[in-house]
Write a structure and sequence with these properties.
This protein is an all-alpha fold. It has six helices and no strands. Helix 2 crosses helix 4. The radius of gyration is 36 Å and the shape is globular.
Length: 208
Amino acid sequence: MPQMLRMPRKADLPPGPKREFATELMVHFREAGRPRLDRIATATSELPGAPSVSRETVRRLLTGQTLSSWQKVDAVLRALCQLCGQEPERRRWPADTSSWGGGEDDDTTCREYLFQLWNDAIDEVESGAQRPVPPPRSRPEQGVPPAAAAAEEEDPSPWFAVPQQGVLPAGYDPQYDPQEETPSPSFPIPASTPLKEYEGGCAEEPPF
């Protein structure tokens, strides 16, 4: 009788992101009733659009000896969920977390959580450490990233900044020519000042 696959000892797989990944995959392995490795491998080959995973790769994934590619990890997860009649897109945590001391409601799916642990194992990110934050999504109504939208609402650059890549600075009028505009006098002109009459009887400025 072949030996049943078990979670490796801490001496063989020390605590860390790789062990957390293997432990999570082992949860689905247990829920499926600890199926034979060849049965899991056969189930992956029957999944539409998924790569076939060998029996040895399944064993190494469950024992934390390899991380492989996400496509193969996802195929093993889907195969295990199929064998136990579950969906990989189901919630990883129960909706009511107050019964077991949980915090805020977390609607992360089993697939999303395993994908997160797989990334953490590759980057060797410890549990509870700061993970890389994904970039913000674009606003659906305009398709403008929030950072660009904020720059449009409040442009910190002065109006006289040199335009870059064909973009004119704020307040710039391409039709404006400072030479065509008569500058305003720097001192006030009294309204009662009469205009001096020159030759010809016209009250206007003398010709130059």
